[in-house]
Amino acid sequence: MTGFAALQSGIEAWSWAWDMRAVNARGLDIRLRMPDWIEGLEAQVRSAVAAAVKRGSVTVGLKLSRTTEGFGEHIDEAALARFLKQMATIDAAAAEAGLNLARATAADVLAARGVLVQPLPEDEAGPLAAALADDLPKLIAAFDAMRQSEGAAIARVLGAQLDRIAELTAQAADLAEARKEQTAQRLRDNLAKVMANAEGADPDRVAQELALIAVKSDVTEEIDRLHAHVSAARDLLAADDPVGRKLDFLMQEFNREANTLCSKAQSTDLTRVGLDLKATIDQMREQVQNVE
After folding, report:
1. For residue 3, which phi and psi values (nearest 5 degrees)?
2. How confident is the model at residue 81, as a pLDDT?
3. Alpha-carbon distance 108 to 231, whole Å?
């Protein structure tokens, strides 16, 4: 489910800004964009997000700045040497393969992880890490509040779509009931054709063919399963647990029954209802991708 939250805070020597955002995804993908010189912070953030979110591509960012003098970035000579050595190896391999690589600029080198560092004074490390960790519950609470609001809106949309599916299923049931006599006559005609050409045929095979003709025209099971799926979907929407994956699977079942209904319709009106069902189910499936 999509969501966004932002939080600004600070202590005596530091100020910072958090942001947390999520977009739809089939599983949980957590991406962190924050300084790597605060020991243990990334693990805390990852754990807190994983406990709060079960599905989605979540990005958490932290911009940190010092509000007093006496602290700045410097180049880690060892990390710089390692990076330049790796670049030389890559350039040599590219040249051997006949490839021309764009030259790295000084800004590219400084942007490499670990080259430009900010050593944290020991007397500030603990208070800063603790203050940042204290912000996590507030950030996640704000993020959840937005998702709750969006979730309520999506639930209303899904509820309306389920109502439409239930209405179309009822129409299909009425049409199937109304065409029973026509279907029975068609079955009798097909039975007569089979029996007229059954001389010397295997009786078991004849019985099998007759059963197949009957099954191909009966949509009772499909309609019953559609009713059951509507009931199951309503129960899932009323649940407090994450139900996105279950709803996603249920939409596949909805689509399967609608497809079978169309293939068995043998009636213009019933086919039209089946196609309306498929269109509504597809719209609902798109919304279900937003559900955690």
Report:
1. -170, 160
2. 84
3. 57
